[in-house]
C-alpha cells in the first residue's frame, strides 16, 4: 500500500517539476541572443522573404502568447515544427530516440555490471597488483577525453584493422540489396560495437571506483565477521554478503549519472555518426532551432526524472530497510 | 581429556609504536559441557582470546607463541581452508546483537540456512528448513518471524537469532563475546537463561567473555580473571567469588555495588591502564596494586595455589600482606 | 593468498570469456560483411558531412539538401561548367528576346518526368502560378518581374516581363520546375490551410517526380540516401556542354559522416568514393601520399571580407577605411592562413568570375613590402589630417611602434572591435582577424579582434547593427553580380537588410538599379565595372581572400570527375563519372 501511494506521490512531483522545467526552458531560449532568421545567410533571400518567414514561424507574436500556444500544443502531442528541418519535432524525436536509448541503456547496463563485478574483485584484493591495475585503469577511463578516445577506437579498430565500420548505424550496401532480418540486426550490432565500447569504457571507470570504495566500507561491517565466523567461503562472503550491500550506492549513482552521460553520448554520437538525440541536440542548439532544442532538453529532463524514480524504487526493492 | 587446552598462548598486534602483546603467556582448559567465563576491564585481552579461538584475528595480529589443543588438533597451526571447516561447525561465536552482526539485506532464515549448508552440503533443503525451525523453537522465536529481515527484529530477538545461528551445526564449543551488553536487564536475564538451557541440552562448552562480573557469575561454572593480557586468577565460580585471592579480583568485586550490602561503599580510584608494550619482568598490576612490594616491581609473578582448582598469579608474600591488611 | 588469486581468476575468466565471445561473433560478421562488398561496382558512394535538412524543395535551403535536390529538380537553363555561360537545359535552345514587347520565347526540350509522363508547358505554367500563389521564398521575389506567362503550345512558352531584367536568364530561368501532376493537388489543399506556405514545407514526398538524372529511391533518416538512375532523363546519350551525358552509374548511395576525420578515413578505406565537402589543407599531405586518392583543387565563387559600420564615426571617413585596406597584407593571408590554397581578392566580384570581375580597380597593398604597407597606410592617414602621439614612421623614415592615433578633429580614437567568427567555426576568418588587429596596431589604432559565436555575430551585425567592424564571408556567391545591389544599395540599409555596412551613395544606388535592367551583357558589364570601381574607392568592405576548394576522391572504382568552379561535386560530374572497368 505504501509503495503504491509513494509511486503516485512521486509521479505527481515529477510531473510538476517537469512542467516547471518546460516553462523555464521556453523562456530561457527566447532570451538567448541570435535568432533563427540570422542563420539564413543566403543573399538570395530578400527582405520580404524574411518577413514572410518570421510570420510563418510565429516569431512575431509576444512571448507569453507563444507560451500558451506551446502548452496547448504540448498536450496534444504537438511539439511544434523544427525550424531547421521543417518537420514536426515529435516525428524527428521519434525517429532518433530509439537509437540513443539502445546505445545508452546497453552501455549503462554493461558498464554498471562490469563496474560492480570488477570493483568487487578489486576491493577484495586490495593492494594487490590486480587491484592497482584495475584502479588505475578505472581512473584513466574516467578521465578520458571522449572525442579523442572515440576517434582512437575508430582509427585502430575501424580503419587500421578494418574489423568495424567507420560509423553510422548500418551498412547501406547490406540494406539496399534486401538482406534478411537477422543479417540486418547483425549489421546494426556490428555498427553499434564501437560506440558501445566507447561509452562502456567511459562509464566503467566511475562505477568501478565507486563499487570498490563502497566494498571497502562494507568490509568493516560486523556482519562480514559474522559471515566469516560461520565458516562461509571467501567467494560467498564477497558476492553474497559484501557485494550485495556495496552495490546499493552504485545503483543510485547510475541513476544520477544518466543526466551527465547525455553529453558524453552526444559527442560519441557525433564521432560515430550515430543518428541519435545527442547529435540532434547539438545541431538544434547551434542553429537556434527553438522547438527541437527545447524538446531535446525536455526529453533529457524527463529521462533523468524517470530514471531517478526507478532508482528510488529499485533501491527500495533491493534494500529491505527502505520502505515507503 | 579436556576439550580445549590452551598452553602459553601469546598473541601480539603490530602497531606503529611497537609490538603490543594483547594476550601474554596464558594457559587454560575447558572440559566438554562446561562453561568458562573470562572477565576483566576493556583492553585486558579477553576479546582477543575469543578471536584467536575462532581464527578471526585481524591482519596485523598473530600468534607469537603457544598452542591451542582442541579436540586433538592444534588450532595455532591451521591454514585458511582448515579454519573455514572448523568455524561454525566445531567452534562458533555469538556476537553482540547491538552490532550489525546480521546482514541487513538478507532474510534471517537465509542467514541461518547458509550456516548449515556450508558445512552440510549433502543435506536436503527440507531437512535444512526443518533444522532451522527447530533452532528457532529452541531459542523461542515464533515461526512466523522466520522470513523477516534483521531490522524488523527487536534487540532481544536479534540476539536469540544469533544464538540460533551459532548453534546451527551443533558445535562443540561456543564463544559468547559480550552477548548481553546493550540489552536491558529483563532481556538480558532471558538470554542468559537461554544460554544455560542450551548448554545443558546440547552439552556444549561455552567460553563466556564479559566485563560484567555478575553476568559471568550467573552463567559460568569456571572463571578466569584477566588483567593486562594475563590471567591473574582462575578457579571455580564459588571459589573466586567467595574468596578472591588476587588484589585485582578483590578490587573488581569491590567496585561492584551490591544492593543488600549496607557496608560503606568505597569506590576505588580509577586504575591506570597497564602498559602492554613495555612491561616485562614485573607484575602487570604493579602500578595500581595497593599492596605492591618491591619484589612485584622487579620480578615476574608465579602461580600461587589456593586449592586444586583455585590459583592466583602473584607472590605469596604480597597475598599474605594483602590478607593481613584487611 | 593462493585461494584469493584463484577466486579472482575464476571471475575474471568468466567475464573475459563473455567478452571474447562477443568479440569473435562480431569479428566474424565483420569479415563476412567485408566479403559482401565486392560486387555492386556501379554503385557510387558519396560521403556527406551532415544530414540534408529537408528534401522538401521549398525548405531544403542548406547546401546538403541542395546537393540532393539539384539531382532531381531541373531548370530551364543552367550554367556551362567550363565557360560559366547560360546554356539551355530543359529548354531546347537560347530564348528569343523581343525588345519592344519585352518577351522571352522559350522552346522546351522533349523531356519526361521520372514516371514517364511528358514535361510540358503546363508544368512551367503551373510552377509560375505556384510561385505566385504561395510567394515561395527565393523564387517569388525574382519571378515577380513576370507580368504574364503564356503557353503557345505543349513545348513553347512566352514570358512577358514588366521591365527589362538583366538577371532574367541567370536568376529567373534557373528556378526548378515542378510537376503539375505531383504538386497540383497539394497546392489546392495548401491554399485552404491556415498557413499555406507552412503546409507546403511540411509536406514530404517519398519519391518525388523530377526531370533530373537521378531519382530519390529511399531515404533512411540518419543512415543513408539511396538515389537511382532516372531512365527517363532527357540528357542521357546527348552531348551537352561538350560532355556526353550518362549517368553511367546505376545508383548513388549518400552516407553521412559526423566529422571530417572519419570521412577521410572512410575515403581511404574505400567505404566512399567521394567526399562531397571542403577538406582542410592539413589533410592534403597525407592524402597525396595515398596512391588510391586523387585530390582536386578548384576555385570558389566566394567572398571573404572585412566590413565596416559606415554609419558610425570614425568609420564614416573614407581615408580611414582606405588606410586599413592598405595595411592589410593579403599575401601573408594567402601564404600563412590559406597555405597558398586560394587567391587574394581585390574586388567584391571574385577574380574567377572573369567576365564580371574588374581587375582595374584600386588594389590596396598589392605587392608591397611589410614596411611599405605601414608607410603607405600612414601616408593616407597623415594626408587626411590624422595625428599621433607617436607616429609609426619617424622623421628618419624608419618604422616604429605607432601609438595613440588621433582623429582629424583632434580627439583620440576610441578603442574599437573587429568581430570575427570563432576559431572552431572558421579558423581562417578568426586568424585573419587576429593578424589584421596586429597590423592595425602597428599604426597606432586601438583595435582588438573578438571572436563571437556565429549566430550572435550575425544578429549583432545584421539585426542590431551595433558594431564597428567585422569579418564575414559568402561561401557561395552567385555567378551573376546582381548581389552588388542588395549588398550596397541604400534601400537595403535596414535591420536584417543585406547592406550591413550601411553604405549610402546615391550615385551607386542609381547604377545598381540601372544594371538590373540592362539585358545586353556587354553594356551591363560597363556598369558593373563602374560599380566595382566606386566600391573599391570607398571600401565599405575590404575584400580579403577567396579560398580554393579542396576535395578528394577514391580512384579505386570510378573516374571522370569534372572540375569546375566551386568544386567537383555537381550534377555534371555525376552524369559523367564512370566505373573504372
Protein architecture, described:
The complex is a heterotrimer of chains A (about 325), B (about 325) and C (about 575). Chain A has 12 helices and no strands. Chain A is about 75% helix and about 0% strand. With about 325 residues, chain A is mainly α. Chain B is an alpha/beta fold. Chain B has a domain at about 245-325. Chain B has helices at about 45-55, 80-85, 110-120, 125-140, 155-165, 185-200, 215-220, 235-240, 245-255, 295-300, 315-325, and strands spanning about 5-15, 20-30, 35-40, 60-70, 75, 90-95, 175, 205-210, 220-225, 230-235, 300-305, 310-315. In chain B, strands 6-7-8-3-9-10-12-11 form an 8-stranded mixed sheet, with helices on both faces. In chain B, a hairpin with a 2-residue loop joins strand 9 (about 220-225) and strand 10 (about 230-235). In chain B, helix 5 runs parallel beside helix 6. Helix content of chain C is about 35%, strand content about 20%. Chain C folds into 3 domains: about 45-55 and about 210-300 and about 550-580, Periplasmic binding protein-like II (D-Maltodextrin-Binding Protein, domain 2); about 75-185, Dipeptide-binding Protein, domain 1 (Alpha-Beta Complex), CATH 3.90.76; about 305-545, Dipeptide-binding Protein, domain 3.
Amino acid at each position: 500500500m505504501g509503495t503504491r501511494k509513494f509511486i503516485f506521490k512521486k509521479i505527481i512531483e515529477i510531473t510538476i517539476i517537469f512542467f516547471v522545467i518546460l516553462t523555464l526552458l521556453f523562456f530561457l531560449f527566447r532570451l538567448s541572443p541570435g535568432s533563427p532568421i540570422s542563420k539564413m545567410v543566403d543573399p538570395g533571400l530578400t527582405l520580404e522573404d524574411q518577413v514572410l518567414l518570421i510570420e510563418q514561424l510565429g516569431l512575431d507574436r509576444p512571448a507569453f502568447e507563444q507560451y500558451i500556444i506551446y502548452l496547448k500544443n504540448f498536450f496534444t502531442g504537438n511539439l511544434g515544427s523544427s525550424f531547421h528541418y521543417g518537420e514536426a519535432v515529435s516525428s524527428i524525436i521519434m525517429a532518433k530516440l530509439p537509437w540513443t536509448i539502445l546505445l545508452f541503456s546497453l552501455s549503462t547496463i554493461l558498464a554498471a555490471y562490469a563496474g560492480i563485478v570488477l570493483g568487487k574483485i578489486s576491493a577484495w584484493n586490495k593492494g594487490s597488483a590486480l587491484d592497482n591495475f584495475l584502479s588505475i585503469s578505472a581512473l584513466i577511463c574516467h578521465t578520458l577525453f571522449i572525442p579523442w578516445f572515440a576517434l582512437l577506437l575508430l582509427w585502430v579498430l575501424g580503419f587500421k584493422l578494418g574489423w568495424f565500420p567507420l560509423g553510422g548505424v548500418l551498412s547501406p550496401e547490406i540494406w539496399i540489396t534486401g538482406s534478411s532480418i537477422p543479417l540486418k540486426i547483425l549489421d546494426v550490432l556490428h555498427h553499434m560495437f564501437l560506440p558501445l565500447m566507447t561509452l562502456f569504457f567511459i562509464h566503467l571507470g566511475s562505477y568501478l571506483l565507486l563499487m570498490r570504495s563502497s566494498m571497502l566500507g562494507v568490509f568493516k561491517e560486523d556482519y562480514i565477521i559474522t559471515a566469516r565466523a560461520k565458516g562461509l567461503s571467501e567467494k560467498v562472503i564477497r558476492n553474497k554478503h559484501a557485494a550485495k550491500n556495496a552495490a546499493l550506492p552504485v545503483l543510485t549513482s547510475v541513476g544520477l549519472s544518466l543526466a551527465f552521460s547525455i553529453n558524453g553520448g552526444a559527442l560519441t554520437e557525433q564521432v560515430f555518426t550515430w543518428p541519435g538525440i545527442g547529435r540532434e541536440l547539438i545541431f538544434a542548439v547551434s542553429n537556434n532551432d527553438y522547438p527541437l532544442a527545447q524538446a531535446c532538453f525536455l526529453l533529457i529532463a524527463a529521462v533523468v526524472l524517470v530514471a531517478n524514480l526507478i532508482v528510488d524504487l529499485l533501491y527500495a526493492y533491493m534494500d529491505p530497510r527502505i520502505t515507503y | 581429556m579436556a576439550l580445549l587446552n590452551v598452553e602459553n598462548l601469546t598473541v601480539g598486534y603490530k602497531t606503529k609504536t611497537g609490538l603490543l602483546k594483547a594476550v601474554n603467556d596464558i594457559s587454560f582448559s575447558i572440559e566438554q559441557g562446561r562453561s568458562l567465563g573470562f572477565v576483566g576491564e576493556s583492553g585486558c585481552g579477553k576479546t582477543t582470546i575469543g578471536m584467536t579461538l575462532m581464527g578471526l584475528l585481524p591482519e596485523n595480529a598473530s600468534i607469537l607463541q603457544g598452542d591451542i589443543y582442541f579436540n586433538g588438533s592444534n588450532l595455532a597451526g591451521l591454514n585458511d581452508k582448515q579454519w573455514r571447516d572448523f568455524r561454525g561447525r566445531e567452534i562458533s561465536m555469538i556476537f553482540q546483537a547491538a552490532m550489525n552482526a546480521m546482514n541487513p539485506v538478507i532474510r534471517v532464515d537465509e542467514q541461518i540456512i547458509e550456516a548449515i549448508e556450508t558445512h552440510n552440503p549433502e543435506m536436503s533443503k527440507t531437512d535444512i528448513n526443518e533444522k532451522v525451525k527447530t533452532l528457532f523453537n529452541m531459542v523461542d522465536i515464533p515461526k512466523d518471524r522466520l522470513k523477516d529481515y534483521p531490522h524488523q527484529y527487536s534487540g532481544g530477538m536479534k540476539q536469540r537469532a544469533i544464538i540460533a545461528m551459532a548453534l546451527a551445526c551443533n558445535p562443540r564449543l561456543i564463544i559468547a563475546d559480550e552477548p548481553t551488553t546493550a540489552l536491558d536487564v529483563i532481556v538480558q536475564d532471558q538470554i542468559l537463561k537461554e544460554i544455560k538451557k542450551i548448554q545443558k541440552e546440547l552439552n556444549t562448552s561455552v567460553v563466556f567473555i564479559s566485563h560484567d562480573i555478575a553476568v559471568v557469575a550467573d552463567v559460568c561454572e569456571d572463571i578466569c580473571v584477566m588483567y593486562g593480557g594475563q590471567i591473574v586468577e582462575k578457579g571455580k565460580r564459588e571459589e573466586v567469588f567467595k574468596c578472591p585471592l588476587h588484589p585485582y579480583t578483590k578490587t573488581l568485586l569491590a567496585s561492584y555495588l551490591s544492593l543488600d550490602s549496607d557496608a560503606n561503599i568505597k569506590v576505588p580510584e580509577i586504575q591506570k591502564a597497564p602498559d602492554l608494550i613495555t612491561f616485562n619482568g614485573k607484575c602487570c598490576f604493579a602500578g595500581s596494586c595497593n599492596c605492591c612490594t618491591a619484589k612485584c616491581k622487579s620480578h615476574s609473578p608465579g602461580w600461587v595455589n589456593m586449592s586444586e582448582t583455585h590459583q592466583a598469579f602473584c607472590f605469596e608474600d604480597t597475598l599474605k600482606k594483602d590478607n593481613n591488611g584487611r | 593468498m593462493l585461494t584469493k588469486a584463484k577466486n579472482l581468476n575464476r571471475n575474471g575468466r568468466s567475464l573475459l570469456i563473455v567478452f571474447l565471445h562477443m568479440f569473435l561473433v562480431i569479428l566474424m560478421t565483420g569479415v563476412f560483411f567485408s566479403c559482401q562488398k565486392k560486387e555492386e561496382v556501379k554503385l557510387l558512394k558519396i560521403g556527406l558531412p551532415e544530414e540534408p535538412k529537408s528534401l522538401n524543395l521549398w525548405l531544403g535551403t542548406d547546401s546538403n539538401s541542395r546537393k540532393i535536390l539539384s539531382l532531381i529538380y531541373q531548370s530551364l537553363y543552367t550554367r556551362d561548367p567550363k565557360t560559366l555561360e547560360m546554356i539551355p537545359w530543359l529548354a531546347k535552345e537560347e530564348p528569343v528576346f523581343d525588345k519592344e514587347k519585352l518577351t522571352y520565347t522559350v522552346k522546351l526540350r522533349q523531356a519526361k518526368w521520372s514516371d514517364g509522363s511528358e514535361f510540358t508547358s503546363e508544368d512551367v505554367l503551373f510552377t509560375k502560378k505556384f510561385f505566385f500563389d504561395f510567394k515561395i521564398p527565393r523564387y517569388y521575389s525574382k519571378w515577380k518581374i513576370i507580368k504574364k506567362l503564356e503557353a503557345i503550345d505543349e513545348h513553347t512558352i512566352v514570358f512577358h516581363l514588366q521591365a527589362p531584367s538583366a538577371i532574367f536568364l541567370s536568376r529567373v530561368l534557373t528556378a526548378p520546375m515542378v510537376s503539375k501532376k505531383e504538386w497540383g493537388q497539394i497546392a489546392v489543399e495548401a491554399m485552404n490551410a491556415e498557413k499555406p506556405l507552412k503546409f507546403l514545407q511540411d509536406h514530404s514526398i517519398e519519391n518525388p517526380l523530377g526531370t533530373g538524372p537521378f531519382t530519390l529511391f529511399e531515404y533512411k533518416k540518419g543512415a543513408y540516401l539511396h538515389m537511382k538512375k532516372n531512365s527517363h532523363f532527357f540528357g542521357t546519350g546527348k552531348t551537352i556542354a561538350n560532355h556526353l551525358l550518362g549517368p553511367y552509374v546505376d545508383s548513388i548511395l549518400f552516407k553521412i559522416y559526423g566529422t571530417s576525420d572519419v570521412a577521410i578515413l572512410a575515403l581511404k578505406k574505400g567505404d566512399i568514393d567521394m567526399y562531397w565537402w571542403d577538406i582542410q589543407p592539413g589533410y592534403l599531405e597525407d592524402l597525396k601520399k595515398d596512391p588510391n586518392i586523387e585530390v582536386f583543387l578548384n576555385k570558389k565563387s566566394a567572398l571573404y571580407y572585412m566590413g565596416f559600420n559606415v554609419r558610425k564615426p570614425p568609420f564614416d571617413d573614407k581615408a580611414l577605411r582606405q588606410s586599413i585596406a592598405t595595411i592589410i597584407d593579403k599575401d601573408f593571408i594567402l601564404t600563412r592562413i590559406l597555405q597558398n590554397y586560394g587567391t587574394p581578392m581585390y574586388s567584391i566580384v571574385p577574380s574567377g568570375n572573369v567576365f564580371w570581375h574588374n581587375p582595374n580597380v584600386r588594389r590596396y597593398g598589392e605587392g608591397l613590402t611589410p614596411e611599405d604597407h605601414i608607410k603607405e597606410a600612414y601616408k593616407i592617414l597623415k594626408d587626411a589630417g590624422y595625428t599621433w602621439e607617436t607616429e609609426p614612421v619617424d622623421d628618419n623614415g624608419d618604422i616604429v611602434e605607432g601609438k595613440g592615433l588621433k582623429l582629424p578633429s583632434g580627439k583620440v580614437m576610441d578603442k574599437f572591435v573587429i568581430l570575427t567568427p570563432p576559431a572552431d567555426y572558421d579558423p581562417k576568418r578568426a586568424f585573419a582577424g587576429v593578424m589584421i588587429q596586429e597590423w592595425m596596431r602597428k599604426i597606432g589604432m586601438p583595435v582588438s579582434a573578438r571572436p563571437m559565436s556565429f549566430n550572435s555575430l550575425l544578429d549583432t551585425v545584421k539585426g542590431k547593427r551595433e558594431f564597428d567592424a567585422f569579418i564575414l564571408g559568402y561561401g557561395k556567391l552567385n555567378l551573376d553580380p546582381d548581389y552588388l545591389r542588395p549588398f550596397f544599395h541604400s534601400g537595403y540599409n535596414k535591420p536584417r537588410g543585406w547592406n550591413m555596412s550601411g553604405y549610402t551613395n546615391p550615385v551607386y544606388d542609381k547604377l545598381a538599379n540601372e544594371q538590373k535592367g540592362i539585358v545586353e551583357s556587354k553594356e551591363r558589364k560597363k556598369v558593373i565595372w563602374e560599380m566595382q570601381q566606386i566600391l573599391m574607392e570607398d571600401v565599405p568592405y575590404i575584400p580579403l581572400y577567396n579560398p580554393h576548394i579542396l576535395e578528394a576522391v577514391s580512384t579505386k572504382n570510378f573516374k571522370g570527375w569534372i572540375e569546375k568552379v566551386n568544386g567537383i561535386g555537381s550534377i555534371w560530374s555525376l552524369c559523367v563519372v564512370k566505373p573504372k572497368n
